[in-house]
Design brief:
Strand content: 25-35%
Shape: globular
Oligomer: single chain
Mean pLDDT: 91
CATH topology: Rossmann fold
Radius of gyration: 17 Å
CATH superfamily: Vaccinia Virus protein VP39
Largest sheet: 7 strands, mixed
Number of strands: 10
Distance between the termini: 22 Å
CATH class: Alpha Beta
Helix content: 25-40%
Number of helices: 7
Strand order of the largest sheet: 3-2-1-4-5-10-9
Structural class: alpha/beta
Length: 241
């Protein structure tokens, strides 16, 4: 489904902020105990394990990369990991996700910016909605548009090197500042595009929450994090079915 942003050890700083944002949002909603949950584009399973450790009744991690699924399973957490082939088309993807459900909660970290055009973006949101029960919730970390070239994210683990106009949304070419660096591409959708796709999929409400950052420490002090909060990589999208 997406280029997974968890290839470094330890995690890059912006990923720590995203995980903290998602975790605090879940805490504010009362946690996940007793819920059926699915983590979309689960990668190596960081968010998936967080859901399982929070007491979810059922936790499913979904990805399209066999190697990421293999590595996630090595952890031994009480999680179902499922390989879905999104290359088969969005209708097949939607059917596969719906067959796994229904779920009370879906999480997705930097999934929707991988949609290559507007039709794919809307189809992806419909696939998520089809997997949720009425009243179910989607919590998604999505990129903030418009930061390049004005914000420098390299101290936080990511660099955008080019914006190529064209199509339904500009194409961003970027790299993770890991050792070695990992190049990737994604689309620079506006938040309004995400909200429109969610509404079209049948989500009743869409709201936004700013990035929250972890407590300061010796490695990353408050000055470091306060600078990041002025132009963070992502925001939290909260959709209720």
């Amino acid at each position: 489904m997406r280029q997974q942003y968890d290839t470094s050890t330890p995690p890059v700083a912006f990923s720590l902020a995203d995980a903290f944002t998602l975790r605090t949002a879940l805490d504010a909603l009362g946690g996940v105990r007793g819920l059926d949950t699915i983590d979309l584009a689960c990668g190596h399973g960081g968010t998936t394990r967080m859901l399982a450790s929070g007491g979810a009744r059922r936790t499913v991690g979904v990805d399209n990369c066999p190697e990421r699924i293999r590595r996630a399973r090595e952890d031994g957490a009480p999680v179902e990991y499922v390989l879905l082939d999104d290359a088969a088309g969005m209708s097949e993807l939607a059917a596969g996700m719906a067959e796994l459900g229904p779920f009370d909660l879906a999480t997705a970290v930097y999934l929707f910016n991988q949609a290559h055009d507007r039709a794919a973006l809307h189809a992806l949101f419909r696939a998520v909605r089809a997997a949720l029960r009425p009243g179910g919730r989607l919590l998604a970390i999505v990129p903030n548009p418009g930061a390049f070239p004005y914000a420098d994210w390299s101290p936080y683990g990511i660099s955008v090197v080019e914006r190529a106009p064209g199509g339904d949304a500009p194409l961003l070419r970027a790299r993770l500042e890991t050792d070695p660096p990992v190049p990737f591409e994604c689309r620079e959708w506006a938040h309004a595009d995400f909200a429109e796709a969610a509404a079209d999929a049948g989500f009743a409400t869409v709201s936004w929450q700013p990035t929250r950052t972890p407590p300061a420490c010796a490695t990353r002090d408050e000055t470091y994090w306060s600078r990041y909060r002025t132009a963070p990589v992502g925001s939290l999208m909260n959709c209720v079915a």
